[in-house]
Design brief:
654 residues, alpha+beta, 23 strands, 35% helix
Length: 654
Amino acid sequence: MRRITATRSLYKARRCYSTVSRSTKPPKYSSLQISSLHERYANGQLTVSSLVKDVQKRIQENGQDNVWIEHVRQEDLNDRVAQLQSFVDQEPGGMNAVLHRYPLFGVPFGVKDNIDVASYPSTSACPDYKYHANESSPAVDKCIAAGAIFMGKQNLDQFATGLVGVRSPYGIPRNAINADYIPGGSSSGSAVSVSAGLVSFALATDTAGSGRVPGSMNNVVGLKPTRGMISNTGMIPACRSLDCMAIYALTADDAFSVYSISKGYDERDEYSRREPPAFLQTGGHYYHNFGHILEERSLTDFKTIRFGVPDAKNLKFFGNTEGMEQVYREAVNKIAGIEGNIKPREINFEPWSRVASVLYDGPWISERLSAIDQFYASHPNSLYPTTKAIMERGKDFSAVDTFKSMRKLEGLRRETEKCWDDIDVLIVPTASTVPTVKEVLADPIRINTNLGYYTNFTNLLDLCGIQVPAGFLPNGMPLGITLIAPAFNDSLLYRIAQIFQAATHLPLGNTGHYIQDKVPIRQDASGPVVQLAVVGAHLSGMQLNSQLTDLGAVLLKTTRTASSYRLVDLDGKKPGLYRTPEGGSSVEVEVWGLPSDKMGRFIENVRSPLGIGNLELVDGTTVKGFVVEEYAAKQAKDITQYGGWRAYKTASKN
């Protein structure tokens, strides 16, 4: 119920604050936001064939940007276009049904070249290491199964070792904002490709910040989920015990959509994890779990979220720092202003910084070496010079050193976890410096170390995070913030990032486009409201919609359920929606804001076998919605394949 209040306050925040600088660059290309693409597909303004030709043209016009190590083969692209078009031709519900069945339909994406794609070479930016993958990473497979279009393998800091993006024999990917500055690493090509408008999203990896720092440098979202939630099978490891997949996208919505599709337990990955059962059962709640009693708080009530920031003494920026603290402080103020005056709590950041130093000053360097030890023993000169120097240090640590460092880490973990008694989300700058390529080449180790000040500790402490663009510095370069929380709080961070990104209204990457608000609030909505999901005759323009509008309800958004529901036709006039433990799908719904004092009057019109219950949406949140009793569902015609009631009714007329 308070979610609407929080969102309305978002618009107040938008009026109260301004960014340090804002790009006025007009769009060169059409938007590749997933929602924009799907709107154009649905309206007949775009076909898969024309989209692919457009993306190929963009890549060609971007020239020698050093983003790509391997482009998709033309014959594979032709086959994919034909396959996706066949989905449309064979679908009785038309394009709308296709878009609901394949949530990434016709969406172009890139893959960091330490992640396997079947029949394509993987190099991890080391030509002599190259091999051809027999099968794809599960994340790649899931994206392709959801309708996405693979465009190629992308450049990175060799063996995913570095945060700077300049350590590759394939060249330095050109920063999408300003070529004089580093692209960030190690997922350099991934972030640049999204910012430049070449793909909608990119699959990357994150060990020490590789799924976040390049996002800050290129003004895009970088999602680093809880370790183990996306399978690492088919990934060339950096530090296997710390690695996780990451996602770059223009918006938090797009990043989380890809995450929701990509995640899942994998028995082949020894570090794969399942969400705790208690977390799965709560829908719209999140938990702090350090082995003691779980503490429950409402995800939808923004006022209950306790934010933390590094104390002033340990808030550090290095090198060219003009404007960095100002942008960061302004971003914190934006979040505080979204729901009144939430005062963030300062935490002692010193132990966190000591955790960060453990990663490159301890035996985790040896774990990096262990990932390629046989190759390195026979091909020591195949490595990029800086990468080689780092790997050599991996020989300096003994088993005794390893256990000492593990105990040290556990001590620091105990110190840092105390803060979660007082805060729920930590807000830090993503980057501590924004250096030029020239500066990094002259001082590669020290600057790389400084860049990890706010990122290196995250995986070591089993935290999740999301990088969100926050503003621009006086030199025109972007700076982001990272929202951090304990493991399995990914949905919470996504929701905050989504609201914050809409409040800042910054340009998306270097595309010249701006975010399309996904939760419009009409100005005549007043007072507390209940979010109610409707799936059938109460949809906009349908026969019972007036039962909502007559009570003052307003449409908040069109979205989908989680992928665990079935839809049935009860009598030709209304559908029924029910949840199933297996064989479910995602179904289109509209979420309406109904004044809470009118909810009782609305329910009076609900007749058996329908009822009002809890409904989980695709983003993990829970709202009230229509559900059907089991006996009626068993007797009704299953229409889940159409993706929604509206698509089914359209197909029935044809």
